[in-house]
Please model this.
Amino acid sequence: MATSEPRLAVKASLTPSELDDVGALVREARWNQLAADWRIFVEFGRLYAIHSETGRVVATTATLPYGGRMVLVAGEYRRRGLATAMLRRAMADLTAAKLVPVLDATPDGHAVYRRLGFEDSWGFQRLIRRERQRAAGNVPAPAGVTVRPITDADWPALCAYDAAAFGADRSAVLAGLRGRLPAAELVAARGDGIAGFLLGRDGGLAAQIGPLIADDDAAAGALAARALEEIEGPLFVDLADSKRGLRSALDARGFTAARPFTRMLYGSSARFDDAARTFAVVGPEFG
Model:
């Protein structure tokens, strides 16, 4: 008896059973997402899902207004063209909206995305700390800079600072991170302005800090050090390859490399963000 082919749909919401299916895909792939992350995609972006003949979600990809991100496919449905079909649909929708498709590729996916027309822009490394390690001494903030928790009064200026560094407004995504890892919600204030900030989130495998956006190495190091002193347990940070000074400081605090990523743009290699101020990204699914 013939069975129907898996079908591709754009999801405006996820039912409880679909959310269970998506959670199973995340666990199989050893990704870090929680339901709160999927709510960001559904509320502010677009979620694509492929259902099996029995109605189970077996593959997903998602986009946010500033670009496309992760692809998950159930093991028994891989190598059947499902990921490519979803990506082509997402790319078509983004280009129709006059947006440039962007994604963060693992080594396994890199060649696939190159064949689809994506070009390398820059790299970052996922680092993991298995447990908290106390530093030998405090990391001082630069002269004239104070590192403190983010307040509601900081938020408009913080979002404007981030948009200038990231190259697009992602305030809705940043708002979706608030409250998920309070110890990482820090701003580096210089007078009445902002010299950097850090956010974070909880996860299925580990907590994660990022984005980390700062004027310079000293501000970034002070923000990271303050958070690391407060956060216990496993911790991820997705650090730009160019930030060697902060990488050395993180190595000294017990971080080790987990996997590399390459940020890729469709039809271009020119990065859209401020390389000097971009220290750590939110994660490969968010940018």
The chain has eight helices and 13 strands. The CA atoms of residues 127 and 257 lie 5 Å apart. The chain has a mean pLDDT of 85.
